[in-house]
Amino acid sequence: MKLYLYDHCPYCVRARMIFGKKIVPVENIYLLNDDEDTPNKLIGKKMVPILVKDDGSAMGESLDIVHYIDQLAGGTLLNSTVRPEIEGWIKIADTYRNFLTLPRCISINLPEFATQSAIDYFVNKKTAIYGDFQQHLLNSQTYIERLNSDLITLSPLILSDRGINGTFSMEDILLFPLLRNLTMVKGVEWTAPVLDYINSISRITQIPLFNERTI
Fold it and tell me: Is the peptide bond before 49 cis (omega within 30 degrees of 0)?
């Protein structure tokens, strides 16, 4: 199987997590961000992740891929229950996390931004939605202070470093990708429970963090 993806994309990380956790072989193929032809040929639109199965058929939508691999691999299926507290935390983080991560991800040597045209394409698309990248970088401390406060709120919700609700589940599929992206941000005050959690899930899913190239 082949998984077409971007490294900075939280939805792609969702798909990568289930392959890593279930130890299912897959070839990761990183597309340039301005490559519209490949995803359009595979699923008719520019979207990742895309899974090309062994039979050659292609599947989009991150959670569809997660459920497909979860069932294909066998064993205990993921607990799909997501606590309202986790849903609420994610909704709050969604109001500002992109202001921290989008301006930084183009500068940490990710494969989808290997060319200037890919960077320009991304910047033009995202600034039209989220606003000026340089302004967000200038406002970083405000966003970081909000994140630091929210990490304190998140900490007591972590029941185990092997799975936020005690075992690896859909809560981890939804939460870890957001936290992983935030490890590219310098100056975040990670609480001990959250830091232990992201390091543990990184090992379990075989997905490295960005904490060695913070900006």
Answer: yes
Q: Angle 87-13-103 (CA atoms, 0-180°, nearest 5)?
A: 85
Contact 65, 59 (CB under 8 A): yes
For the chain, the structural domain boundaries read 2-73, 84-205
Residue 4's φ and ψ, nearest 5 degrees, are -90, 130
| pTM above threshold 0.85 | yes
CATH class of 2-73: alpha beta
Residue at token pair 């100056």: 187
Position 131: which residue type?
A: G
Kindly state the tokens that stand for 102.
């989008």
Give the end-to-end CA distance of the chain in Å, rounded to a whole number: 34
Please answer whether residues 180 and 13 qualify as being in contact, where contact means their C-beta atoms are separated by less than 8 angstroms: yes
CATH of domain 84-205: 1.20.1050.10
Task: Quote the distance between the C-alpha of residue 4 and its chain's center.
Answer: 14
Please tell me the distance from the alpha carbon of residue 33 to that of residue 29, in angstroms, as a whole number: 12
**Cα angle 76-81-84, degrees, rounded to a multiple of 5:** 155
Chain segment 71-117, per-residue pLDDT in tens: 999 889 999 999 999 999 999 999 999 999 999 999 999 999 999 99
Using DSSP, state whether 50 is helix, strand or coil. Answer: strand
